[in-house]
Fold this sequence. Notes:
The complex is a heterodimer. In chain A, strands 6-7-8-3-9-10 form a 6-stranded mixed sheet, with helices on both faces. A 4-stranded antiparallel sheet of chain A has the order 2-1-4-5. Chain A contains 8 helices and 10 strands. Helix content of chain A is 34%, strand content 25%. Chain A is globular, with a radius of gyration of 18 Å. Chain A has a domain at 8-84 and 188-238: 3-Layer(aba) Sandwich (Rossmann fold). In chain A, β1 (11-20) and β2 (23-33) form a beta hairpin. By secondary structure, chain B is mainly α. Chain B has one domain. In chain B, α2 (23-43) crosses α5 (94-122), α5 packs across α8 (198-223) and α6 (128-156) packs antiparallel against α7 (162-189).
Amino acid sequence: xxxxxxxxxxxxxxxxxxxxxxTWALRGIDLDLGPGETLVxxxxxxxxxxxxxxxxxxxxxxxxGTGTLGGADLVRxxxxxxxxxxxxxxxxxxxxxxxxxxxxxxxxxxxxxxxxDGAVTAAIERVGLGAVADERVRTLSSGMQRRVTLxxxxxxxxxxxxxxxxxxxxxREATKVLEAVLQxxxxxxxxxxxxxxxxxxxxxxxxxxxxxARGRLILDEPRESMTFPAFQEVYTVRAEGGGR
Amino acid sequence: MSFLALTGQILRKDLxxxxxxxxxxxxxxxxxxxxxxxxxxAIGSSEAQVREAAPGLLWLAFILTGLWGMxxxxxxxxxxxxxxxxxxxxxxxxxxxxxxxxVGCCLMWAAELVILAMFGLFFHLDMLPVIGPLVPxxxxxxxxxVAIGTLFAAITANLKAREVLLPLLLxxxxxxxxxxxxxxxxxxxxxxxxxxxxxxxxxxxxxxxxFLVLGYLTFPFVMED
Lengths: 244, 225
């Protein structure tokens, strides 16, 4: 986790491909994301969304292709990239014997030093977990644990937020918090790449819409270019059936 | 984050988890006691037999409990994909390795003290006079074992057959440590100076340094995909 103001950095990806034991999970992905842009990726299961997010997070090396975040190479300059990335993944990355406060303090220290006084408490309050801040995580429901991961993102002033199925287990109130913090991130000039199956919420948050199918980015358009029904139609035809 | 700061963070976090869950500590204590109890039945109470077998039995108990302890330090990280989060930490991942080594050593030293106490109890031996001479052996032998064991525990952490692979990979590399530690323990139990055979001490120190440097340098590569 990086601590500090978000700068107007850009993400550029060219020909990004990833194979697992000879099977291509991603093929020739090109992306250019400017300050304040949020690309929301939709796609069927196995289309490569999580693989792309893990490559952007530097957790996986691409088999082919290159990418830079703020000029730092995704493969050769991983450490610099990691300072600029915040990840909300499938796994909660939470230690169940620690409290939300201890988990967040550890995460903040691990990724960028001690957060400012009160920053952890403020993040916990923001996601509505003030009453359980000092309870062990294992006693919290899965939805509450998801909120803790959201609080971790709030502590994170990284340039690029990578959100893999962020709406999972979030109730309406927590969803509103996620949307609000994402909009604040956009306003700061931060980038975000989100993968989701939640069409309506994802569509609302996007500044760019993407569809991944069979490892290829078959659509990458500004959100203003189409209405929600039109996008659903495109998805149905190109990702689920008509694109075969 | 500097590697020493990272080491400190990992150490604090792991010890806090161990103290709260008590799962690791309780299992180590129970397993240690059980092992010594079984040894007691296996070799009887003949003083000569006990004296001859003691160094080997002690180190067998140490490494069996240590093996479990090292696997445990990475089991904590497997839950909820925490290991993946650690991989995302910018900075020297060698600090993570050193943190895990320190935690592993603390767990193992605690188990060793219990094993020594149990050994004295079950075999009617007065262990207090030999604790002093044994301290350097326990310190050095444990560091070497944990240094290489932590590296292999990380390598096997995400494999399905990790419980089988970890000892298979680790034990052959442990032979020099066990030879040196076993011989020095023999000297310590007999009340002789460890400097009576200094080459074993030098071997132990040498392997500790080699394993620590090897682990520190290669751990970041092990953590990457």
